[in-house]
Design brief:
By secondary structure, the chain is an alpha/beta fold. It is globular. It is 39% helix and 13% strand. A five-stranded mixed sheet has the order 2-8-7-6-5, with helices on both faces. A three-stranded antiparallel sheet has the order 9-14-11. Strands 1-10 form a two-stranded parallel sheet. Helix 12 packs parallel to helix 16. The structure holds ligand F0G. The site of ligand F0G has 15 residues, from helix 4 and helix 5.
Length: 460
């Protein structure tokens, strides 16, 4: 198979669902109805839904059949013990606390450890991680390397943390740091991996300062496969073994299983030692559920127990990362600039460069996201001035540092011909890009406006 250039899905399809293919007029009508905000589109009007890779996975026959064996007992369900054993085997962590998704794990762990004035360093915190720390009066500190902030840098591990800054930061603020983190892969920075060497060095720094080290492990398998591909001394190793070496470096992890757990809902905290476990289980009971289900049905735990092993299949991981690279390279070839090098779960288009004729205050990222939908029914997500733009004290517009559009790929859902079809359509979009116009916001909620604000297109 290695001599073939065509990427093939390493699975056959047993169950299908229809692809919603609408006419251009119907898409235009849906856009108007949604106020040009793609979050407000009914999913039934979207052909290729690249809004997120979270919870959008297609499950395997093995997962669906495991679900039928679930033991839905309130306490002590045998499904929990099966799930616990898989997490223990993969991570080496003894204590496993299920949660309904990643942010529930964040709320529980930070609720126990973060106080007003606390500081939590990481490469980059994901939005919900940051929000859960800030909600408790703490500070989420991003210390990613400089290359991680440069969209065109081709550094192979742009998720790495800046080790000198981390060491100095820990030295200066030791008393205020209840835990240190690393996000693998670094979603905020473009789904970029962290090198095993960087993980070793960061762990040593946290250990030197006696700071507990917790991984945000929601894309741990993709990160481990990148290590195999890009860190030459690990090329011959099994991904499962690399993953275990990563977990061995930390004191525990939080995981949104909606990504590399290959499930539609679920998450967990896993810890090496017992000191926080009682406190976490107490608050788990208060808000999520009994410690052997944590807000999930037992069938979800069964699906997750199978998914965590399936995701470490190397044929799957090679295919997964090949598709993302294929999409990024395909776009680059026809003149669409993307964050380099391609990350694991998503392609990020640099809309500021691509649509240089649309100024940031007219939201070039949103203009591109709207065009992607209008042109071929693709739903992507603006990560630019709609999401992060602000007004200063005088009311003047302050743009976000980058105007990106994220196409995040659900796992095992779309086929290679779907991806080719999308790329083919993008050629027309590139040809007509000078006709694209910006938008203005006509309705805006007081916070997190990107979810519900409404736009009007600006005239030509
Ligand atoms: N950490 C990272 C790195 C994430 O990417 C996410 C979610 C979470 C934590 C929170 O997990 O959604 O299960 O509560 N990322 C999704 C995304 C939403 O689209 O990137 P959750």
């Amino acid at each position: 198979m290695s001599t073939h250039r065509t990427i093939i899905e390493p699975f056959k399809i047993k169950m299908t669902e229809p692809l919603h293919i609408l006419t251009g007029e119907a898409r235009q009508a849906a856009l108007e109805e949604a106020g040009y905000n793609l979050f407000l589109l009914p999913a039934s009007t979207v052909t290729f839904d690249f809004l997120t890779d979270s919870g959008t996975t297609a499950m395997s026959a093995a997962q669906w059949s495991a679900m039928l064996l679930a033991d839905e007992s309130y306490a002590g369900s045998s499904s929990f013990f099966r799930f616990e054993a898989v997490v223990q085997r993969i991570t080496g962590y003894r204590f496993v606390i299920p949660t309904h998704q990643g942010r529930a794990a964040e709320r529980l762990l930070f609720g126990l450890l973060v106080r007003p004035g606390s500081k939590v360093p990481s490469n980059n915190h994901f939005d919900t991680t940051r929000a859960n720390i800030e909600f408790l009066g703490g500070q989420a500190v991003d210390l990613v390397i400089a290359e991680g902030k440069d969209p065109q840098s081709r550094h192979p591990f742009k998720g790495n943390i800046d080790l000198d800054r981390l060491d100095r930061y820990c030295e200066e603020h030791r008393a205020d740091i209840p835990l240190g983190m690393l996000t693998i892969t670094n979603n905020t920075g473009g789904g970029q991996p962290v090198a095993l060497a960087n993980l070793h060095a960061a762990a040593a720094i946290y250990r030197k300062h006696a700071i507990p080290f917790i991984l945000d492990a929601c894309r741990f398998a993709e990160n481990s496969h990148f290590i195999k591909q890009r860190e030459p001394e690990h090329a011959g190793r099994a991904v499962r073994e690399i993953a275990r070496e990563i977990f061995d470096l930390a004191d525990g992890c939080m995981m949104s299983a909606k990504k590399d757990g290959l499930v539609n809902i679920g998450g967990f905290i896993a810890l090496r030692d017992e000191r926080w476990v009682q406190g976490l289980r107490n608050s788990l009971i208060l808000t999520e559920g009994f410690p052997t289900y944590g807000g999930l049905a037992a069938r979800d735990l069964e699906a997750l127990a199978v998914g965590l092993d399936e995701v470490l299949d190397e044929a799957y991981l090679s295919y997964r990362l090949a598709v993302t690279r294929y999409m990024a390279e395909g776009m680059n070839r026809i003149g669409i600039p993307t964050v380099q090098p391609p990350g694991g779960h998503a392609v990020y288009i640099d809309a500021k460069t691509f649509l240089a004729h649309i100024p940031p205050e007219q939201f070039p990222g949103q203009a591109l996201a709207v065009a992607l939908y209008r042109q071929e029914g693709v739903r992507a997500c603006e990560i630019g001035s709609v999401m992060f733009g602000k007004k200063d004290a005088t009311g003047a517009f302050v743009p976000a540092p980058m105007e990106l559009v994220r196409l995040a790929f659900p796992r095992r859902v779309y086929t290679q011909s779907h991806f080719d079809y999308v790329l083919e359509g993008l050629t027309e979009l590139v040809r007509d890009k000078q006709q694209m116009r910006g938008l203005r916001i006509v309705h805006e909620p007081p916070f997190l406006r990107h979810f519900t604000c409404r736009f009007a297109p600006l005239g030509g």
